[in-house]
Amino acid sequence: MKVLVTGGAGYIGSTIANALLDHGHTPVLLDSLVTGPKAFTEGKIFYQGDIADRALLERIFQEHPDIHSTIHCAALIVVPESVEKPYLYYRENVCKSLELFHNLAELGYTRVVFSSSASIYDAVPGFKVTEEAPLKPNSPYARTKYMMEMVLQDLSRATPLRGIALRYFNPIGADPKLRSGIHVREPSHVLGKLVDVALGKLPEFVITGVDWPTRDGSGIRDYIHVWDLALAHLKAVEQFDHVLAKTQSTYTVINLGTGQGVTVKELVAAFERVWGRAIPKREAPPRPGDVAGAYANAERALELLGWQAQHSIEEGIASALAWGEKRKAVLGYA
Hints:
Rossmann fold, 7-stranded parallel beta sheet
């Protein structure tokens, strides 16, 4: 099948595109290249442009009328930047997604798999959240994801649009074949920063927030290999109609995580084991928008998609390190 992937030149979107290709499907990429590198689109069907551009969407569907579904990954994602530039985040993430969803419904391409985020959850005792856990997005970035979910849900009730929102926990690692990985020069993701320290691009790793009510004071997360994440999207588009029939709904939400909570300090220790040496590190207060964290109850993903995470944290770390060594050859910069 053909699948439209918005944000297809990004870290996650490009990995999803590679997973689709590896399983016999054809990704059609739409990306503005504001953040994603053009190198990740090579060898694939690619359109450069804005997700809110109606004329461009019409052209894509005219040239590929057999597109089965849309995976919507395009978004700005840096939490501290969203605190500093909320207008930018609401415009790019919410306003443009609203136009995208409206246009998809009008053009008759009504299956949408939406890249959402576990950052919308409120803190709960024990930190493990189901899809029914209370929501409390604590940054403009998280609130944009929450709003986009509400838009998709409301449109699915009022129009032919149908939606599956996949709430990501914390992606790590790279495509196992090293075709793609974290591409930003100064990554905000914790593992990207650890790799940059290991490769000498940063002098030290800063553990931001060490007074959270967790077992060691550092934030708790659910670190999921980006390839596992991509395979969940593959299953979501392959089983889209079946999932909504099973839930008897026009819209459903599914957590994507390992089901295991790992603190930042524990991740650093695992990184040092894989790297084979200690890295320089220090502790600091939390950044604007940071939260204690959460990890997934991933039972619904197993029930509805037949999916569960297969790769360990150590595998994610090893692939991130390997990509860190290779990415200059792919992207032209280290």
